[in-house]
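Methods — Computational structure assignment.
A single polypeptide chain was analysed. Its primary sequence is given first, followed by the predicted tertiary structure written as structure tokens.
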Amino acid sequence: MQFNVIEQNGRNSVEKFNAELIEGFYEEATTKVRGDLVAKDFAGRAPGVTFDQDSFVKSLEQFTGAFGDGRYVNEQTIVERDKVVTIGTFQGTHTGTFQGIPPTGKKVNVMVVHVDRVRDGKIVEHLRISDTGSILRQLSPSLMPKIE
């Protein structure tokens, strides 16, 4: 894919394309998994885990299965060249098994930061920073530490 770089309101067309691709990916990923936007040589990580293309797509499928009405609400996008940072929240209802916890019907809300790198219209690198512990505590209050 060839890009022509054109300045538009301080952001060139490649950066605009990358930002729209990533924003659209997370918007769509909450309703269906967009594996076609993940490069074959993809490398990703999150606290305690690394991903290749297949394991990343599978993890998205499992997550969307656990929170069927889940959606990512993007609050801010920062883009520089091929890197796109999105900051927002994930909100959803626990309707499927999540990390061994059967469906509770409880609503969750957790802050999420994604850092993605785009090459030729595909995501090639991904870093997710989120508080999975917060989700677990929202689903099962017994996991919360006692404060004395």
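Note: Helices lie at 13-29, 53-66, 132-139.
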